[in-house]
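We read letters as residues; the integers encode the fold. Take this protein.
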Amino acid sequence: MNQKRPFMLRQPRGTRMPTLLVADLSAFLGFLRVECGLAENTLLAYERDLRDLIEDLVERGITESDRMAPRPLVEHLMGLKNERGLASSSIARHLAAIRMFCRWLTANGRVAEDPGEWLERPTQWQRLPRYLSEGRIRQLIEAPAPSDPPASGPPLWIRDRSILELMYACGLRASEVGMLHLDDVLPSLGVIRITGKGDKQRLVPYGQPAQEALDLFLERCRPELVRSDGRDRSRLFLSRTGRPLERVAIWQIVKRHAATAGLSDVYPHLIRHTFATHVLSGGADLRVLQDMLGHANVSTTQIYTHVDEARLKAVHRQFHPRA
């Protein structure tokens, strides 16, 4: 049985942060890992953002957690925008990390009152997600094709086509694609078991096109990718060398075939946004979409209610007496 190792704070070279602040931050990160079960990438993001905060507080003469106050926190966030030029989405991520850290400090008696309660999320930080039209997502999925003349080695275009089909069929994150195992595909039920953030699992149905692409991959491509030493046999998608595909490799596959299809600024999460938008516009319930995306809170899913203006106008015309 695998046990998660304790989280050790990574201090940047050449810096000395106060022991008390470092101790509190290390304990908080350990709490996120052990109690909350957050993924490694999420933990690294929290550590990076909160280390920025601590370094800023130290420059302001604040060296202990109980001296944290709303004003320096607000000034830190303003500095991220005005001095470092961070995007609103990045500042929003910093804000979420700071507020969670402050709540933990309060709950554990490190501070008397929660200074993060005064930090409000500006409405302009929420941007509506971009998505592809049905025609363009079809172009992307159909971009992987056999080369002429045929390339030597495994037909990787079959693997890439099945990856794109599954990402659109199930709204997968790039990291979730790489984590899929053979036994996660349940063809008798027509669903895939997905391990998302915090190792939380969900079942998401997939359609006939994705099933056909998967069948072709399992029959004609994957057997040629499995290594002779038997390692990594359980992973669904493998690289040319037989190793599990990493998140960066998924990014590269999406970007490469987007360029082939003549599409610009396409990335894995855009396919996830497209899945969510198309499912919701097709009439899906918001709570059902929340389950399929693996969102812990329905408020995260609600951003997609603003993107389907055409369907809202059609419903208005159909049912409003004076439309």
